[in-house]
């Protein structure tokens, strides 16, 4: 802590991070131990966060992340989209295919940014807001591979015809971005993905990850 920072705000943010890292919630005693503060301080922090719907407590008294966090999270997409656009534009123009940034939204993959190439005669019409199961399509498969820590994976996923007949996809996961699960990829009308595309989407995914850190 420095003179310019707020100890109370810091503790409140630490509470939210601790709750976000658990599926079963935490008691006041558990939070008190993890934060290294007394229970009275924890009660005050939780009461304040509850007023803003950022924390909720169940019947047993365990604190969990509240629905207010979801409302804040919705505002993250525009910021992420803006940070990703330069790398997506470069990827789309380089490969001559539609480039996209896809994030996890619950159990689905959600395309939050899409850039189409300017010089091709035709390309796949892929729109921001498009959703699909995580286990279908290159974007979702790349995310799941990263989630599993799949060391045998080449660093990107390739698929054909899983989301659209005649279309192939390649995607690489965003790595090292705290709080964000996603991937960067391309989709093209072809029977297979050219060899250079996989490494190129990995490069673009790293550029986006660097922009988000």
TrEMBL record:
CDD domains: HTH_ARSR. The keyword ATP-binding does not apply. Residues 6-67 form the HTH iclR-type domain. Residues 68-213 form the IclR-ED domain. The keyword Repressor does not apply. Keywords: DNA-binding, Transcription, Transcription regulation. Signal peptide: none annotated. Pfam families: HTH_IclR, IclR_C. Gene3D superfamilies: 3.30.450.40, Winged helix-like DNA-binding domain superfamily/Winged helix DNA-binding domain. SUPFAM superfamilies: GAF domain-like, Winged helix' DNA-binding domain. This is Helix-turn-helix domain-containing protein. The lineage of its organism: Bacteria, Bacillati, Actinomycetota, Actinomycetes, Kitasatosporales.
